[in-house]
Amino acid sequence: MQSYMNHNSFGCFVLMLVIYALVMVPEVDPEHALMIEENYPNPMLIDPKRDRFPCCIVWSPLPVLSWFIPFIGHIGICREDGVILDFAGPNFVSVDNFTFGAPTRYFQCCCLSPYSAEPTGEYVKNHDESGSDVDTWESAIRKSIQEFQHQSYSIFTCNCHSFVANGLNRLGFQAGGWNVVNLAIFIYLKGRWVNKTAMVKTYLPPLVVLGFGLIFGGGTFLTYLLIFMFVLIGWFLLGTYCFKKLIHV
């Protein structure tokens, strides 16, 4: 009876967390979510309804895997016209069909003036300071597509993050040096939510899985979850920083 009461109490606690996720997530300013701040001249409009994110990195949660580790997801990079490109399988870069549904987060790397072909914003500022010879946005992405159209896909060694990191390195975005680890951290911390629904879509499934796991599995579930996270994250850390040729970028 005591065990049942404990599980019942914990179930109520998890339910409260789910309700909090649905109701208390902060409001996203529509103007803030749909365009870059006005301090950039002639900002490029972002249109989530049409899945158009000009010069952006975009992210969405993965089925099942993101339910257990919510900061792991699928990532893509967008052309100047906002069309999403993502490395979706062996020798295949998907165009305008984001593999795991509409993006929930995005980060706009630069914006283009409608009166000029020259990009502006943080992307260009970093290039000007470095003085390096870098590709234009479109040419860099085109080269990455050509390279990854001849790459085998593996979630462990050559995945969607590899493709986007490759493009950002060609662009010299923030001085380059991008890999699957710092890119995942960057989009998780710097990415903007498309809207409130996107936040719920990202965090509600992990809360539900965690709640049911703890109710029915207790400490055993939590132990196996932590082991799984440790092994998966450890693999990418070792493959990125210790065995640098193991994970393709």
Structural commentary:
Helix 1 packs across helix 8 (196-242) and helix 5 packs antiparallel against helix 6 (160-171). A hairpin with a 5-residue loop joins strand 2 and strand 3 (84-89). The model is unreliable at 1-43, 112-121 and 123-128 (pLDDT under 50). It contains 8 helices and 8 strands. It has 249 residues and is α+β, with helices and mostly antiparallel strands. The chain has one domain (2-242). A 6-stranded antiparallel β-sheet has the order 4-3-2-1-5-8. The chain has a two-stranded antiparallel ribbon with strand order 6-7. The chain has helices spanning 2-23, 30-34, 65-68, 122-130, 137-148, 160-171, 180-190, 196-242; strands at residues 56-61, 73-78, 84-89, 92-95, 105-108, 111-112, 119-120, 192-193. Keywords: Membrane, Transmembrane, Transmembrane helix. InterPro entries: TMEM222/RTE1. It holds the Pfam family RTE1.
